Amino acid sequence: MGTTLKKLYVDFLRERYQAAPRKRRRMILDQVCRDAGFHRKHAIRTMNQKVVWARKRGRKRVYSEGARYHLRRLWIVMEQMNGRRMKQWLPFWLKYYEAPGFTPEIEMELLRMSHATIERVLRSYRAETGRRLRSGTKAARLKYSIPMKPFDRNVAVAGYLEADTVAHCGESLSGEFIWSLTAVDRLSGWTEVRAVWNKLATGVVEAFKDMEERLPFVVKGLSSDNGSEFLNHEVMRYLGPNKNRKGEIFMTRGRPYKKNDQCYVEQKNYTHVRKLLGYDRLDCPEALPLINDLYRNEWSDLQNFFIPQVKLIEKIRVGAKYKRKHDLPKSPHQRLMESTSISEEAKKAMQAKFESLNPFHLKDGIERKLKKIWDTQRRFEQRKTQKVTHLKLIPSGNIPS
Length: 401
Prior knowledge:
Blueprint: H1 3-19, H2 22-36, H3 40-47, H4 65-77, H5 83-94, H6 104-112, H7 115-122, E1 160-167, E2 178-185, E3 191-197, H8 201-214, E4 221-224, H9 233-239, E5 250-253, H10 263-277, H11 287-305, E6 312-318, E7 321-326, H12 332-338, H13 344-355, H14 359-389
Parallel strand pairs: 1-4, 4-5
Antiparallel strand pairs: 1-2, 2-3, 6-7
């Protein structure tokens, strides 16, 4: 019998030994000496020891289980942001937070937590979802007429957009399905997403028109990859002067196979599209207007008004590593309010809309619309299955000549 097993064996018999009468004690001592190989006096001393419960090592927990529970709920609602951004924006979200068991004491605990404590508490809850690499970009012949030059990283005015598409194709790029078109402003991080059918040029142009009408600033430039959905004559005609826009939108493209040339929009492809709709196939035409309704309203308001972002201020190489310094987490709305390139009328309209919104109401609306989208997709798949099942093959002998 090993040392650990002996200790467990003796601890198991000790409480029974101390409560037993004298005759029963002798029997237990005989058993311990025989099984564990103890000397009788050593067995008596071991059995007469007080039962001491081992105290957990380390300092006591400062934050209660209730605080940890509500922190996890808030983290899920706040789009699973990191500790620094969550620490900065918790006071604002807590103004609207209501849940059973949430007390002022728990609220004070949450506000006392540092960003490192938030990260440590949430470490066991973090979703282990890796990004799947899948690309539907095809090169276009028109790309040679568009300059291959990324935008300046240090833009000082709003209106320079990066655009990209995300395929909702499931495991196969064959057939027709829905794509998401993402456009993000470099200065503020303001992001708009629209759904298009089959990545057609007309659908992309309509999506750009809808986004441009809802943006709180004037679009000055557009950067994209080398995909045929952007590098075509329909999009080029739209970017030129028209009745709604006096100036021309300057367009550039990134280098092939260099995703860092569109690093801003590549981030948003995950946070604004994949985290919302996942990686499943969406090939139901009836779901297209439902997805656009979600993108245009609740999802846009939540991401642009209530989800903070950080911007890189400085990056220094120290030996083999890079030391990065970021600014305070701010929402795209806050960055536009601080920008001098936005008119006062646009700022007043944004502030009025911000004060009328409640993030928890937006989350409830998002969940309802997501359920409707996936119910529509599920019914469409059932109809396809039933159609295939009811097909009857004609026997070869009955084929007319």
